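Collaborator request, handled under Task 6.
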Amino acid sequence: MASPAPILILDAFSLLYRAFFALPPLTTKAGEPTSALYGLTALLIKLLRERRPKGVAVARDLPRPTFRHQRYEHYKETRVAPPSALGRQVMRLGEILAPFGFPTFASPGFEADDVLATLAKELEAQGETPMVVSGDRDALQLARGPVSVLYVARGVKDTLYDAAAVEKRFGVTAAQVPDYIALVGDTSDNLPGIAGVGPHTAAQLITRFGGVEGILRELPTVAPPRVRDALAAHATELSMWRELAALRDDVPLPDGPRYAPCSGIDVPRLRALFEELEFVSLLPRLDEALAACAASSG
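Structure tokens returned to the collaborator:
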């Protein structure tokens, strides 16, 4: 029996960022940078062709602080401003996505990751098969039940994770990934973790005690002493880091369809945009993707 067609949920900014750093610089004849937009569009067309989804939704970040910044003043403090070439392409992201016709979601006070989690939860409740597509490791905690995560590591290279694959990689369940991140840290979010606790030790602690809450509750029994002392020194922060690493799945989203099929793509508008951005090589790939979608829906 064939697997049900997935609903793709795209982490737009994460994928754009990955594409920018994965591909060599590209510009139009007029000098407009396009590598990130090209990489994102090429990936989306590839997903339509290979995954033949039932539909697609998009999650975006908003340029404002979230509840995590309010909870922890150093959250993402070490991140530097994006290169100007990437910033210019961010400004055109909506223009690229619009002809595809897929609904785009964002929510003040939350990150795109939280929107991904909320959409995945809602679609699962509707009996759909969500497939989250992201370049952010945090999203791997969503790979549970029918939800899978297509992790895009370097712009166009991707790995599909289900619950078993997450556990194989980290030694903990998907639900325990926030505990794992709290212990080992996450440099991209400026979560320092516990000094001396690496991936192997973190997995052992989580397996034994169930997570951060259990570790702190049974702290006197933790060995060796150096690890116990390090955990005790940061007990309060550890609980907070775990809270920050956990994705929220209760984001308020507007009413309306949660996804749209690829049959609604405005092909003439998209072709015109490809011509403008000099994405000529993507035109035949677009035809292949549309044919695959049509065959799948038929």
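The cover message to the collaborator said: "Residues 7-170+257-285 form a domain with the Rossmann fold fold (CATH 3.40.50.1010). The CA atoms of residues 17 and 102 lie 20 Å apart. Please let us know whether this matches your experimental observations."
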